[in-house]
Amino acid sequence: MRKVRLERDTLWLSTADMAALLVGIAVHIVLTQTFTDGNYGRWVLLLDLFYVTATIVDLGLPTLIGRDGERLGSNTHDLVHRCLRIQIRFALPIIALGGILGWLWIGDSTTWLLASLILSLSACVQILTYAHRAALRSLGESRQEALVRFVDRGATAVGIILAAWQFGAHPIALALATLFGPLGAMLVAIRLGERRLAAVEDGVILDTSKADDRTLINLGLPFLLAAIALVTNVRIEKLMLGVLSTTTQVEIFQIAWLAFIAGYAPILSIRAVMLSWFGEVRDDVDKLWHRAKRAIVLIGIAAIPGFFIGGLIGMQAISAVFPDYADKATVVFSWLLVAWILALFASVPLTLVQVSEQPLRYAALLWFGIIADFIACWVMIPGAHFPAEKVAFAAIIGAAVVLVASTIEAWRLYSDTSFSESCS
């Protein structure tokens, strides 16, 4: 059986994310040139709203699969199917509700209503791939999950480019194109996941393998709160700009955010792999601390060149690819780099709390950061000369709160456990 390895699996997922993000940037180049009169900012706000609302469909269940899949072995197959059945029941009302909310907030015509419903469907379909993706990752097949991620972005990019070429800035055509990627990713994830799961043998019985549907939802609740927090965490600034400022400021921040998220994607990949890697030894504090130290060393090595080289590449890319936004977007991006370094170093303590016996505290830590970010945006945006820059400051404040709070909580949880075990 293929085992999870931090360095190898993080490399696979990070490479896929970087490739997908380059494709995504190409899509946004097309969209900025296609949309006019602030409609690009409207499109960005709709996507972000639906990514947040659709995350409810996640229910935290893929995180349970990612955490326990390696130990469950053959029992993972049944868990994946049960999780999908639960998620599909939640998806249908979320698609309708999300689409209508998006139209009421952003849209001004029947065309935008239909586009909103399609985009909401697209976001939910993407969430439904997570169960098989988490299973592949927990069974050491991050290379196959990487393929699923790339298919998602790649098919969407092809669809967007073709739709923009044929129909221009037509919201319905572009929304349908956005659906291509998640549908393709779902088919690939199911095919690869089912084949891999069918080959797994042995395994142990855990609470996730014997729980009924209601119990599974309860077990996943802390991770659902965390999943919503993770999605909201990188979008709260844009949503606040949409509420308190203009779509023009949203567009400026979005361009800087694209460069920022290119560096943030590897952080999420590291956390995803660490979840399975730490989860494998979550009952042995000494081994868990050993793996945490290895992860800290890896992150420390990557941090400095990532900050300087990534920052330079990001600045040059914004100037070259989005010249109309470059003057202001590069300023915003320079501040977002600080938030990036803080989020990177928070990865290890956050994941240690996530695999603990009290995962609700992991969700609470993320929400502390979002609340701090929200308050900072609420205070700084109104009356600001350059609101997009102010929300970058807010992102730094939120990231700093998460880093400090997660470090304190991880030390408190595991130092107490280690001390108790040594005494016994």
| Share of residues in strands | under 5%
Main sheet summary: none
Order of helices and strands: HHHHHHHHHHHHHHHHH
SS element count, helices: 17
CA(first)-CA(last) distance: 35 Å
Q: Give the C-alpha Rg.
A: 21 Å
Number of domains: 2
Number of strands: 0
- The dominant shape is globular
Note the main attributes of this structure.
0% strand, single chain, disordered C terminus, 424 residues, globular, 17 helices, mainly alpha, 85% helix
Give a summary of the structure in a few sentences.
With 424 residues, the chain is an all-alpha fold. It contains 17 helices and no strands. It is globular.
Indicate the topology.
Blueprint: H1 6-34, H2 39-54, H3 61-72, H4 75-105, H5 110-127, H6 130-138, H7 142-167, H8 171-198, H9 207-210, H10 213-233, H11 236-244, H12 247-279, H13 285-321, H14 326-345, H15 347-354, H16 360-380, H17 387-423
Helix pairs in contact: 1-7, 1-12, 2-4, 2-5, 2-12, 3-4, 3-6, 3-10, 3-12, 4-5, 5-8, 6-7, 6-8, 7-8, 10-16, 11-12, 11-16, 11-17, 12-13, 12-14, 12-15, 12-17, 13-14, 14-17, 15-16, 15-17, 16-17
Can you walk me through this structure?
By secondary structure, the protein is mainly alpha-helical. The chain has 2 domains: 1-233, no CATH class; 243-417, no CATH class. It is 85% helix and 0% strand. It contains 17 helices and no strands. Helix 11 runs antiparallel to helix 12. The longest helix is centred in the last third of the chain and has 37 residues, at 285-321. It is globular, with a radius of gyration of 21 Å. 54% of the residues are buried. Mean pLDDT is 83; it is low at 418-424.
